[in-house]
Each structure stands twice: as C-alpha cells, then as structure tokens.
Design brief:
The structure is a homodimer. By secondary structure, chain A is α/β, with parallel strands linked by helices. Chain A has 13 helices and seven strands. A seven-stranded mixed beta sheet of chain A has the order 4-3-2-1-5-6-7, with helices on both faces. At the A-B interface, helix 9, strand 3, strand 4, helix 10 and helix 11 of A face helix 9, strand 3, strand 4, helix 10 and helix 11 of B.
C-alpha cells in the first residue's frame, strides 16, 4: 500500500466524479450503474449477467426471491486481512491486557509470540493456532460484555499501516455488490472463519448485514441465571471452526438453503464456492484475487494469510469469476 | 379428543361467525381483532399489552424493529404433540422401513419398542432416547434427499386420532399470534427440540416461518463432491440437542440477539423463557397449558411428552402468561 498512489487515485476519482454525468443529479429515467467502483469488463459483466439470469422471470435460470441466498467470506473478501487478520490484532491486544493473569503464557505458543511481538512466529502457528488464540482470549465474560469489548476496541484502535479504523478497511466494490444483490431481493450473509460474535456487533452498520445473517467460528457458551436476569457465559472451548468444508455445513445449519452465489478470496472458501455452484440452480462463484500491491496487498499461493492456491486452480477449471483487484476495481476503499 | 364435542364446537363457531360483525365485510376503518380465536380476558390482553408496550414509540418499553425477535417452541406450542411427537411417528415409519437392513435393532432399545409397536416402552425411553432414535433413522442420505423423504411422508400420512394431515394439527390461536407479531415487525423464529431439517421443508407454508428462521436439533453433516455437483451427507451422529439450557445457546448462535418474547409449553422451554425475560428489554414469556381434554389433550406435570412442571412454577412466581387452552382459546385447530 503506497500512500502517494492512494492520494493520486483519490484525486483522480474526485475529478472523475465531478465531471461524470452519473450521481445524484442524474435523470431518474437513466439507469444508474449499480457497480460504479468496478471497471467495465468481463468480471463486472459476469456479476450483472448472473443477476439478470436469476432475477428475470423470463429467464430459464430464474430463481424465486426466497431462494436468492448469497454468502460472503469476510476477511480478504469484504474487508482487508493484512498484515494480519484484524481479529488477531484484537486478540493480541487482549492477550497483552490479560497476560498478568496468565503467567503460563510466557512459555506457551502462540501466546509467547504475542507477548514478545513475534508476528512471524504468530503467523506461522497457522489458521487453527490463530483461531485457538482468539478463542482462548475471547472467553470468561458474557456475550453482552464481549460485544461491548469488541465494539470499544474497534472504535478506539487503528489499522497499523493505513491509520484508519478497521471498519474503514472494507472494499467499496464489494459494498456495491452487497447493495446490488439486495436491491434484487437477495438475502446477503457473511460466512467467515472469523469469530461470529466478533463480527455481529458491527456488520449491520458497515455492510447492512444484521447479526442473524452472520455465520462464523464460535466458542461454547453456557446459560446462567443471575440475580438480575440471565446471561450466556463464553467458555474457553472451541465450538465450531467455520472454515473449508465446515462452511457448507454451517450454511446448511444456519440458513437451511443452498446459496446461489458465493464470494471468497482463499482456499478456506473453496468448499463454499463448490457448494453454491453444486446444486440445481445456476450458481455463481467469485474469488477476489489480491494482486494490487500498489493500492492494497498482493498475495496468493504462498501466503500464510488468505492463501489462494487450490481455489484459484478450480476457478480456472470451472470458469468462476476471478476479480483482479488491480484491473477490475476502480477504487478499493470507500475513502479512496 | 372427543369428536362430538369437536363437532359441537365447530357448529358453535360457525353460528357465532355468521352472526358476528367481525370478518371480511367489516368497514376498513374499524380495527380488526388480530386474535379472533382468543377469548377476551387477561391472557389475550397480556399479549396485546406487550405488543403495544414494545411497539409504541412513546412507550418507555419501546423496542426498535430490528430487535423484535420472538421465538416459538414447536411441539405442543405451535402444533400438537400427542399421542407422540409427530416426528416420532415419522421415525417409527422410517425404522420399520429400514429394519430389514438392521437386524441388530431387534434386541436394541428403543428400536425394539418401535418394531414391536410398544409405544409405552418407546415413550419411557425419554426425550433423549427418542431424539437418538430420530437421529439414527434420519442419517445416510443427503440433506436434499431427507427433505424429500420428510415432505413425502407428511403429505401421505395422517394423524392417528384426528385422521388429519399432521400439518393440520397446528393451533389456530398461535397462527394468529405469529401473524400479529409479524404485522408489528417482529421476526418470528422456531426454536425446537425437534429436528431442524425435519421442520424446515414445511414451516414456511404452514407458519410463515422460512427455513433460515428455524432452529432445532441436528445430526452432523459432511460436505462431499459428487460427479454432478456437491452435497451434504447426513451422518448418524448427534450434533446438537436443542432443549432446555441449550435453547438460549442455540438462539445466540443462530440469531445473535436476545428474544424479547418467547412461547413454549414445557420444561424444555423454561430456559428460553428465562432468556427472553432476563435482559434489559421488557421480555414476554408465554406458556401454553394443555388443559383441554375435550378439544385437545390434558397433560402437564406427569407427562412423558411435554412435561410442564418447573416452568409452570416459575410462570406463577414471575407472572408469565399461562394460556389455558380450555378457557382462553375459542378454537384449537384451523379446521375447527
């Protein structure tokens, strides 16, 4: 991410916007471009063709409104995931805050790596290690208390390279896809390996996706009666890791319908994309390929975070839509 | 359930309806009774008072639309559960169909009881035993195949005493509550110990509750790639039993919000009612008490099915709404 190029891009967009006939002053009879941050081309067209195919009543691929389910991965698909999964920054801050109560963490990975600021060792502990770290630091409070802790952290912490709130690190083109699908009566869901209760407090405001449409990894909870009411306590035990082949399982459990469109960016999303395209309806699968080292980050087959290897092979073999962030996205973030 | 009394009740309702000024011919300026199958009285009033309290913007108990979550138990709350849970009739038919492939069932409970038509031994095996029976007979096919099997069975099988389709054995007064709440922007959910995939194929048509708003017990599933697509296989392993203290846990997992209203009929619903009434909002809890041996069934503290004991104590202590089916419901089923 280079700041100069960002500034140039922002300037270019501002100039383009002020000259453009599109926008609020347009005649209402002219159809607005629903995906203004997408460059014209095959990628953008594939999204619009799919929506037309399943929503035009005269189309053989027409899908009734109730069955228009679209599922989105979060990390790397709706918001950025570099230099670390954002929830991991949260977990790191929690580990440091809780470390005085946990002397055993000084010798125990991945906690040791966190306390010693050894990000390389942390990333090397893998997705499952990272999830365990997250789970271990997210327990011991009620669900309501956890939502408050997560919200407070998100409001007070900034992304290390952009200096922006983490909720600003969302992809403008994907926000447009969410809106576009919902305008065509799709129900949009998040299906992420991220913590379900870490996402739910803010997804409605940021993505327009309410808590009940967020699916993610979880730790166990226990129902308890208190003097002044009842609570769910968060237990230090993993309940479900919503990644790879578990994504279709979680989709079936939470939604009970097969999605007809799925959006991901890594091998962790492969099975979700296979599920969306493996049914009777014409399914749509899209992969966001991080290939823009100038405006965002470039990584795929060798990355510890958001590794994209097998899913890229399958996308090519199956003709899925692969988004080049560099070529297909006019802008990356809403503040560009 | 006595047929003569049913006929008399039906006749009385038909006579009353034809004399009544309410109905479709009313002037649109006169507010319709949203709960016409409920007799006037404290029970009906408590429902309407609650809805007014949380939906009137001037009320101190006002709740924003997005937080108006209402959860309903299914067996004994939305539809009948006698002489056995209806899903158990389905399981019984499945056991008999599959028995030739399972010689070990001849000596193994609760399968032995099913094969020998020993309903008493079956009921005595308890809710958990019954659930295990259900789970064991519901595996070995894809989720799509299971939905078709369940749908076919529901369409072709009749309730043993009423001779009606099982989906006719739903409570008209509760259908009206569902509609009434939805008309006031509540989102209505089923949270049942019944099988989630047994309910989902029909709850939208019967209750207006779509699959994604159905929460229930589940067996594990496994994602598999097939030549012509992808499927979820149902495995003979219990994943989650959505009963008692697990109901708040499942509500949090699936919905991510605390309900402000909950409806049940047995001790299996107690924790869900405690959860709905244990938060910051004014929560509403309602128990359907089966005390109408004439028109339905009468059972509570001693029943193997739908035991209502502790929850009835707590309802009295906490001032929850307890519905007397005999006194509060003008009619029971839609076809009365």
């Amino acid at each position: 991410m280079k700041k100069l190029s960002t500034i140039l891009t922002v300037s270019a967009i501002l100039i383009l916007s002020s000259c453009s006939p599109s926008g609020e002053h347009r005649q209402p009879t002219v159809a607005a471009d629903p995906l203004p941050s997408w460059n014209e081309g095959a990628t953008k067209q594939s999204i619009m063709d799919f929506v037309t195919r399943v929503t035009d009543p005269a189309s053989p691929g027409f899908v009734p409104e109730a069955e228009r389910i679209a599922t989105f991965d979060n990390d790397g698909t709706l918001w950025a995931e570099q230099p670390l999964y954002f929830q991991l920054f949260f977990a790191i801050d929690r580990v440091k805050a809780l470390a005085p109560e946990h002397p055993e963490w000084e010798t125990q990975q991945p906690f040791k790596a966190v306390i010693e600021d050894d990000l390389e060792a942390l990333v090397a502990s893998g997705k499952r290690g990272l999830l365990e770290l997250i789970m271990a630091t997210h327990a011991g409070m009620t669900t309501d208390e956890f939502a408050r802790i997560a919200t407070t952290w998100l409001e007070s912490t900034r992304h290390p390279t952009s200096g922006r709130p983490f909720t600003d690190m969302v992809y403008q083109p994907m926000l447009e896809v969410l809106d576009y699908l919902r305008a065509h009566s799709f129900k949009t869901y998040i299906v992420s390996a991220g913590g379900i209760e870490f996402m739910r407090p803010w997804t409605e405001e940021v993505y327009g996706i309410p808590p009940e449409q967020v699916v993610g990894s979880s730790i166990k909870t226990s129902f308890e009666i208190r003097d002044n009411g009842s609570v769910l306590m968060r237990l230090p035990e993993i309940d479900f890791i919503d990644d790879k082949a578990a994504k279709p399982v979680a989709i079936n459990s939470h939604i009970g319908r097969r999605p007809i469109a799925a959006f991901g960016n890594s091998d962790g999303d492969l099975q979700m994309l296979q599920y969306a395209t493996g049914g009777d309806h014409p399914g749509f699968a899209l992969i966001v390929h991080h290939d823009d080292a100038e405006r965002e980050w470039a990584y795929d087959r060798e990355s510890h975070i958001g590794r994209l290897d097998k899913a890229l092979e399958e996308a090519t073999a199956k003709g899925w839509t692969v988004v080049s962030m560099r070529d297909d996205w006019r802008r990356i973030f809403p503040w560009n």
